[in-house]
Amino acid sequence: MSFLKIDNLSVNYEMRRETVHAAKNINIDVNRGEILGLVGESGSGKSTVGNAIINLLDEPGKISNGSIILDGINILANPENIIKYRGKKIGLIFQDPQTSLNPILTIGEQLIETIQTHLSLNFNEAKEKAVNLLKEVGIKEAESRFNNYPHQFSGGMRQRVVISLALCCEPELLIADEPTTALDVSTQSQILDLIKRLTKEKNLAVILITHDMGVIAETTNRVAVMKNGDLVEIGPTKEILTNPKEVYTKSLISSVPPTNKKISRFKIIEKENKTQGETNIKILNRWTKKEIINQDLVQVKNLNKTFDDSFFTETSKNSVMAVNDVSFNIKEGESFGLVGESGSGKSTIAKIIVNLYRPSSGDIFFDNVCVTKIKSNKEMMKFRKQIQMIFQDPYSSLNGRLKVKDIISEPIKLHNPSISSKDLNDYIYDLLESVELTQQSAERYPHEFSGGQRQRISIARALATQPRLLVCDEPTSALDVSIQAQILNLLKDLQEQLNLTILFISHDLPVVRQMCDRMAVLKNGKLCEVSMTEELFKNPGHEYTKELLKLMPKIESIYN
Amino acid sequence: MDNQGLTLLNRIKDSDIYFSFIKSPTAIASTIILLIIFFCSFFVEVVAPFNPFDPSSLSLMDAFTPPSWSEDGVAKFVLGTDGQGRDMLSTILYGSRISLIVGFSAILFSLILGVTLGLTAGYFGGKYEMIVMRLTDVQLTVPSILMALLVDGIARGIISKELHNEMAIYVLIFAIGISEWPQFARVSRAATLVEKNKDYVSASIIIGVSNPVIMFKHILPNILRPVLVIGTIGLALAIITESTLSFLGVGVSPTTPSLGTLIRIGNDFLFSGEWWITFFPAIFLVILAFSINLLGDWMRDTLNPKLN
């Protein structure tokens, strides 16, 4: 008899237009001492299952069918059961450590409060237990940090505190909902190691909900794959990842960028739209193609950027060096990767290159023109036409009040005011088809599209000015892996056929390996190294690069 | 064209706002009341039983007739008559037209002024923003009635008396408008600060779109929701301010009927027993302002993204 048995669980959301079946007849069981991975793309129902176990479903979600048997007791049978179990028998770790701790209470107060709610201990006993817990999850000098507030901890440390909170009443089941998604690679691996260690030491049953196949491969014993509320398959992680039975699992695994080799294209098994193979880039006929000469298109020279946190004075002690003396070149026609963790200054550099920010010092040369010194509006327009950008968040990068055709026509009309309306329409259709969207999309509004489709619209808009340099700031990190694979394929096709130069910014090393010819690694605003991508992956020079490469979750680790 | 109109109608019918509207009895009730009031005031010549400003239809014999259901009431004067024999119902409808015109114009004036200042302040930032926002703070410390009185006083000083009667309504609109713009400025600045950091604005800058186009084509439609909510609630306030000023005798000229002047005239007769002359315009004002506020409340709840 397994420790947790989810039997035939169904969860419905009664919405205005329809009933959404977020989970359909799910059967999952978890044993003590094992980590079960629950993997799926957004909307697959993986979090719904987690929330259903602890009865934290958002309104109007309801469990319509099934039972959840914990240690032989059906916890759905009696509503009081769940209150008794939540926190005590079942511990919870949420995604965002920023919001799962109360900012106005010290972590000590939060721990003691939780302990005393569930266990009958006096203050001193509770405090002793809390300090021990903090030590156990790897917080140094636990006694003195006991009275600190959450904001005094870094993201990774805060997640450790959250884990200690989840553990403080000695739960037997731990549910971790994307526990490392908000964290950097190096912190991620520490937290995952901690969860693995605690599972063994305390003989816990753990459900790890994630979208990251690398995390699944490195952490879990068994894995359940979900799609649109259905359980696709469940089994030992190694078996599922190496020998998937279902088509969906196969496509999911083939979309994950491999960390150990470079492939030319991602294999797409299930596609959003029907077209197969290479993109038909209609826009090619209109494109005035630049011959690739082996020269530097962009030169970044001794770039510095400081953000002043000052109101009354020009300089202040609080100023942050976001970019610190960074120099690199991007050759015409190549795709250049810029890699770093959050706060490394990679987005700031991108924004300086596209001239959204002015650098504090240093220069950017584009095609041998110093763009940081451009004064006249006309010069600036000529420059704007040649550099375009694709943003991370497909939801905020399109103006929701405009139709797609108005979004795309704006740059065309701006740089070619004399274009006839028939020409303009043809141009818009060509652009849409080049990014694999239908002509009908032109008449629709952004909210009618999915994240991946919005990103395509974003790309179409960027291509409308026929740029030479395309700056992609984490273009796929908000997307599911199968969509990511499609967008990356599209970007590759566009680059090859249009001779685009791409500056690709990402925190995701495997993606950069697939996309970039050369790459630079940033840490805290400083450049660690610049090198050919393959060379850098095989033979990293800098200590920091070595560490990053060692710590990134690898789906291939399952084969060892 | 027809087809486009149809799809727009379908979009409205399909929207969440429409859905929440038909689910809210308060919103429906207040909208119906407001539609009736708007219709009656703007087609007053057709709707009103009498024209109280046509001297030939007036007879002093009818003066001080109480409402029709009281002992001495006459059926043709449903809500009674005033001291000059004018039908109260007709006078109220004519009066509400002036009140509504003043209210709408004043709120439109302050909306345009406030949104323009707030939008540009939020977008450009820096010293300009600081000056505009400190100006708003100063303006907010002065009560709107006081501000309106001040404007009215100055206007009387510089405009000759004959001209002033003609100009009174414009002075009033300006006076109310100038005292209400800070709210719009604050709300639209705050919303602009959120919007301008979104990527679609960055994308427009990178494309090379000019600042005015970014502000008015891209940002403005995205900040209109909170502005509309403030505008609706502000409309009720503007109508009340108009009535207050007219009641105090500094609003529209005494010969023009607005709800405020009617209440003031009736006030003189209140203690001699002719209560209906002040009571009905006052009740009408309360219903009007109350309905607008209820509608504004519903809009605030529905359009607030935090509550969805």
Number of helices of chain B: 12
Number of helices of chain A: 19
Which oligomerization state do the chains in this entry correspond to? heterodimer
* Largest interface (C-beta under 8 Å): A-B, 30 and 16 residues
Shape of chain B: globular
The biggest beta sheet of chain A is recorded as: 6 strands, mixed
CA radius of gyration of chain B is 23 Å
Biggest sheet of chain B, open or closed, and with what strands and sense?
A: none
- Mean pLDDT, all residues of chain A: 86
Judged by helices, strands and strand pairing, the structural class of chain A is alpha/beta
Number of strand segments of chain A: 20
Share in β-strands of chain A: 15-25%
Uncertain regions spanning at least 5 consecutive residues of chain A: 272-276
Q: Distance N terminus to C terminus of chain B?
A: 34 Å
Share of β-strand residues of chain B: under 5%
The strand order across the widest sheet of chain A is 6-7-8-3-9-10
Please report the total strand number of chain B as a whole number. Answer: 0
Indicate the low-confidence ranges of chain B by residue numbers.
none
* Overall outline of chain A: globular
Order of helices and strands of chain B: HHHHHHHHHHHH
